[in-house]
Amino acid sequence: MTDPVEWAGFVLSLAMVYCNIRQIHWGWLLAILSSVLYGFVFWKTELYGQAALQVMFIVMAAWGWQQWLQGRSQDETAPNITATTDLLPISSLQRHEWHRAGVATLLAWFFCTLVLQQFSDSKVVGLDALITALALLGQYLLGRKKIETWWVWLVVNILTIALMVTQHLWLTAFLYFVFAVLSVVGLKAWRKQHAH
To answer: What is the distance between the alpha carbons of residues 196 and 193, in angstroms, rounded to a whole number?
Structure first.
C-alpha cells in the first residue's frame, strides 16, 4: 500500500512542476512542502542521499523563490500584471558557465559519494550521489531561469526512475516518469518564450 505522505508529495510535486513551466513563483513554496514530505519518505526507505537532497532542495527553493521575486515588477497593481510578469528573463548558459557547472557537478558528485560511503548504509551510493549532484545543478539553473535546467531535470528524472524502482517506490517512480515528460514540455515552453 502506498504511503499517504508519498501521495501528498506526489500531488504537490506535480503542481510545482506546472508552476515552474508557467513561471509562477508559488511553485517554489510547493517545492518546499513536497521536499519536506519526500524527506520523510526517503529517510524511511534508507535513501539517505535523496533525503539529504530534500533538505538542500528546501534551502535552494527559498533562494530560487527570492531570485524570481526580485525580478518581479514593482507595480503589482498594474492592470496587465500577470503571475509570470518578471524582470528575470529566460536565458541560456554561456560556454564558460557550462564549464563551471560541469566542474561543480563533478565535485558535488565526488563529495556526496564520500559522505554517503562514510555516514550511510546505502546500497546505491554512486547513483544516489550522482542524482543528488545533478539535481542541485538543476535547481540552481531553475533559479536562474536557464533553459538548460530542463535537460538536466530530464537526466535526473530518468536516473531517479531507476533508483525508485530498486526501492519499490512505484508511485514515486511513476511521478519521475511524469516529471521526465514534463521536462520536455518545460523545455519546449521555455524555448518558445525565449525566442520571443
So the answer is: 5
Cα-flanking dihedrals φ and ψ of residue 89, to 5°? Answer: -80, 155
**Top-confidence residue, 16 or 121:** 16
Residue 121 lies in a domain: yes
Please report which helix (H) or strand (E) contains residue 47, including its range.
Answer: none
As given in the structure block, the three cell numbers for residue 147 are: 533553459
Tally of structural domains, the chain: 1
Please identify which residue in the block is written with the cell numbers 563533478: 106
User: Whole domain around residue 36: which residue ranges?
Assistant: 4-73+91-195
Average pLDDT, the chain: 86
Rounded CA-CA distance 141/143 in Å is 5
80 belongs to a structural domain: no
Does 46 reside within a domain? yes
- Kindly report, residue by residue over 26-47, the tens digit of the pLDDT: 999 999 999 999 899 888 887 7
At residue 72, the pLDDT reads 56
